[in-house]
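Sequence only, no structure available. Ideas?
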Amino acid sequence: MNRKAIAKTTAVLLIAVIIVVILIGAGAYYLTLPGPTPTPTPAPTPTPKPTPTPTIGPTPSPTPTPKPTPTPAPTPTPTPGPTPTPKPVTLIVGTTDSVELTLDPAQAYDYFGWCILQQIAGTLVSVKPGSETGTDYDPDLAVSWTFSDDLKTWDFDLRQGVMLPDGKEFDATYVKYSFDRAIALIPSIPEGAPTGLGYDLIINRTEVVSKYKVRFYLNSPFSAFLGILSCRASAIVDPQYAPIAQVNYTEGDARASTPSAFLGPYILSKWSRVAGRDVEIRLEANPNYWNLASGYPKVKTVIFKFYSDAASLRLAIEAGDVDMAFRHISATDVLDLEKNPNLKVWWGTGTFVQYFVFQTKRPPFDDRRARVAVAAAFNRKTVCETVFLGLSKPLYSIIPPGMLGHTEAFNKIGDANYTLTRSLLAELGYSETNKLKFDLWYESSGHYPSSEDQAVLYKEALEASGVIEVTLKNADWASYKANRDNEIMDAYVYGWYPDYVDPDDYSFLYWATWLHTNYANTSPDAYQQQLALYNEARGTLNTTRRVELYAEIDEIAVEQCSVVPLWSGSAWAVTKPNVSGIYLDITQDMRYWLISKD
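Reply:
I predicted one. Tokens follow.
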């Protein structure tokens, strides 16, 4: 290399060194500059004194309560990234069901009414989808909770940033108002869910501790309180649409037809009824739903179409008129549809129970021997095998199989035990020439599955004893309930879907006041014994002891037979193959926001 080239190279290297030095200096200077101002993190807000919220009705004086003991509650992990939107698809659901009367949590006490409320309303806690016990609680509008050692004081920390459609933020005042209203309406809505569940007997008062904390004071220890809070009677309402009066269906105005605060995954956008029966219900995705970031609801729109009977519903799902058929496809049809390659059948746990009820205030069933005699003549197995093709199981306790406290107590009486039937009725003067005669009622409008087919077999089994004569009578659901309340039916078939999955929500059926059996008056000693056992079971978390207590209640029930368990069913739904995400778990809930349609 010549000198000229060397000089040129040297100059280039010198310039490069100078540039590097300048860059290093500039970088050092830049590092000394202040960085971007971080977004300030607000300091924890001190817990204010309880906010005085107007109480509906008299408020008892505060009583000292022990310091709440924390219990673990799962905390959902926020999903990062942009908020997904529901798929712009519509899920069409066919059903033979209908809202019984209202979508007001202070009144609604029917399966389908609660189903719709579950989609549009929020509760503090909910049962984890797929739960095998029904007692696995997830945070919903509450993110955590604690309770006192005596189970009488329960605190709930509320989810923050949850918005109502009008732009207001959900807080503890909405919770207090919802429960105060439910209890205040009990006298004027005696057949409502809060009445049947005894909210006024359970809850002493609800208190706003702070904006995002609410406290419940209970009248007595109650181990199943989370179950109560997860049910639709505990749905949060919006005071703007929830006066201290029952909210009824308003034609052409879905928003005015429910007091729900619309804190669920959907909002009610359309509700059409004719002559007390639903014609169409439409749900639209709630743009303010707190769990929208997790991808729920999966579909934007859910439309319910209503059919007069199971046969029509089957035709609709086969023809592709609906994407999903749920309640009530008959047992015969569902087994047949399972063979159809163009459809999918979903099977699940059943906690629905059917039972037989006696009016005990007048002869012949004011005498327990007559009740036991009839109970002994039932043939549960024939009904389960003939009507339900083995998809239901004989039931010998009011608590269904698989649940804490279930027994086989009524096996003591047996099935088609005609020897016992004749013996007891002989004591009362009945015989083959002087038969015990009574009317057996069943509902005729599809509220329960295959009611007429069941009733025919009950009649056959009872009359096979040779000493009983039965006249079958029926009524549509509205009339059936009126007959029950007016106490005109000697004996009738009834059913139960759980309000919450706990034996506490089944065992009381032996003396439930809304069944109008008058059992507490006819057999006061037995009733008081059962009630004492029931209340003890409510007040303990000791599982072993609870099992013992429910078994004792069953033993008394066998002796009295005010209510006789018949069978428990399984659950099923039928869909097109492109539908997924269905959970048919022990709750019997259908969570439509989890369902996808490809």
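The two ends are 74 Å apart (CA to CA).
Hope that gets you unstuck.
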